[in-house]
Design goal:
By secondary structure, the chain is mainly beta. The protein has one helix spanning 14-23, and strands at residues 5-12, 34-37, 43-51, 54-65, 79-84, 89-92, 102-106, 109-118. The strands form two sheets. It has a four-stranded antiparallel sheet with strand order 2-1-5-6.
């Protein structure tokens, strides 16, 4: 089965998931995570970048939702879980680094964006 990005994502507070990220890949949505529906598919891209310290991956996430509750997360550091079409999750962030969430109001909807640097690419 071909797995693709869905039109849902979740915001997860660090205290709900950090220990699970240290141990293994997360395959569940913890109680207390907040799920958001998007007006379209999620946009996710990752590109390698070389520097003196080696290669890192720049991950870029964008989604548009009409749920105004997303504004509570603007400017906060939380994990973002991308829901895949097969029901699995892909989490942006590591046990030691939590991404910054930016929310921009836009004509009755909200653009949610995250830029995150990591040493390993996300396997989709």
């Amino acid at each position: 089965m071909n797995t693709s990005l869905s039109s849902h994502f979740s915001v997860i507070r660090p205290d709900l998931i950090r220990e699970h990220l240290r141990m293994q890949q997360v395959n569940f949505l913890p109680v207390g995570a907040q799920e958001f529906a998007c007006t379209g598919k999620i946009s996710f891209d990752q590109q390698p970048e070389s520097s003196e310290s080696g290669v890192c991956w720049i991950q870029t996430f964008e989604a548009i939702t009409t749920d105004k509750d997303i504004m509570r997360h603007n400017g906060t550091r939380s994990y973002v879980a991308i829901h895949m079409s097969d029901g699995s999750l892909r989490v942006i962030g590591t046990a030691s680094e939590v991404p910054l969430i930016c929310v921009t109001p836009k004509e009755g909807s909200y653009l949610v964006s995250v830029d995150f640097r990591t040493v390993k690419p996300m396997v989709l």
